Amino acid sequence: MCLCPKKLWVFLQTPKRGIVAYCLLNAFLRGFASSRGNLRKSITAPGATNRLVSVSGLHYYSLVRVFNNTWVVSDVSSKIEGLSQNIRRLISVDEKKLEYIIAAWIAGGHVILADSHGVGKTSLARALAQSIRWRSEDMAAGEVIMEGFSRIQCTVDLLPQDILGYNRFIGQSAQLIFNKGPVFAHFVLCDEINLLTPKTQGSFLQVMEEQSVTIEGKHYPLNDPFFIIATMNLRGAHLFPLPIPQLDRFMIRLSLGYPSEEDERAIVEKHGRTDAWEGFESVIDSGDLIRWKKMVDQVQIHPDVSAYIVACVRQTRSHPDIESPASPRAGVRISRLVRSLALCRGMDYVPIDLVKETFIPAMAHRIITRDPSIPPEAPLEKILNTVPVEANERKILTQRRKDAKEDT
Fold it and tell me: Whole-number mean pLDDT of the chain?
């Protein structure tokens, strides 16, 4: 039996043959893995686009897709899987939550980890940063040299200049020199951010939104990639709640939670030694992060998916249990997050299921409920259950089938 390239491609796009298509594609890839040039010629068809294959709620994705009209065998998913495995060898963390953090990182967003102390928030951030090989060409930001990683240990007496930097005179001369703050780094860990006073918390507003710092009227842009991961304790003394405008600048908020008994036993055995971090290596280049961030823009999002995001966001403004609703920035951040997550999972477009999956962790920190005893997740769950989605899904599926017929 022999399938011509075009017939094989059309077969792989048929949703109801997902399992067979997935197995056939995997076998095909294994057979031709040694020759990427032959693989591209065998499996691609002019004008075709990569499709989601779905059977019984399980999703499988073909591994060949087009970005900027150039056919490539995508290595994004495999590299991200390698990054995830590298971190999880040392840090006990839920695989899906780690995937969300990596997706936010690639999307150019920032993450806040809100949890009790001692559950591994700081260790996770350190492992993420140390998994990157920073290139020398990424380190210069104009006159200022950026660091690969920096840590801000927040305390109540920290001032904005301790974070952003400050100008000072050289000796007794009239010449000023700029001393950069720890925010001049590609990866910034802000540990226990809610220990900062409101004045110092405000020093992050510009750098998180504009990726730049202004000191005494002088503008300092920060190079890509730039990522802030902040940790926040939920209990303790001398805590200053973050205002909604600042929380709104974080793409997603997660809670690691306590590990299972088995995982906690492994943590005690592994981290009870002084050599726990020995052998931990970098597995991806900083150039990969920059390239992936650009690829996020090429992930397609159907207008009906965008309309669904907007509908969910707007429902927060009329829900009786919500006092402070979500802003339009929330929809922008969710749109960017789901496209990045789709890229991490090997897709070149966004299904509505990804929006439903990430809506609550990407939205819960952006709203305030009228009754403090009601968690923000409760009204958001009701919104997901009330905003209609079936009609949009049918419309998108019809469009995909139409595209498949045109490809034939």
Answer: 79
Q: What is the CATH number of the domain that holds 329?
A: 1.10.8.80
Q: Taking 70 as the threshold, does the pLDDT of residue 252 lie above it?
A: yes
Of the residues 261, 288, 315, the one at which a domain ends? 288
Rounded distance, CA 159 to CA 157, Å?
6
Q: Which amino acid is at 196?
A: L
Task: Please identify, among 288, 311, 340, the residue that sits at the C-terminal boundary of a domain.
Answer: 288
In 3D space, the residue among 349, 373, 383, 377 whose CA is nearest the CA of residue 364 turns out to be: 377
Q: Does the N-terminal peptide bond of residue 225 adopt cis geometry, omega within 30 degrees of 0?
A: yes
Are both 18 and 66 inside the same structural domain?
yes
Residues 290-300 pLDDT 10s? 888 888 988 88
244 & 198 share domain: yes
Identity of residue 25: L
148-167 pLDDT per residue, tens: 889 999 999 999 999 999 98
Distance CA(258)–CA(256), nearest Å, equals 7
| Alpha carbon separation from 354 to 4, 55, 171 (Å, rounded) | 33, 16, 57
Domain that holds residue 229: 78-288
Whole-prediction pTM value?
Answer: 0.77
What DSSP assignment string belongs to 201-263? Answer: HGGGHHHHHHSEEEETTEEEE-PSP-EEEEEEESS-SS--PPPHHHHTTSSEEE---PPPHHH
200 falls in which pLDDT band (50, 70, 90)?
very high
Whether residues 201 and 234 share a domain: the answer is: yes
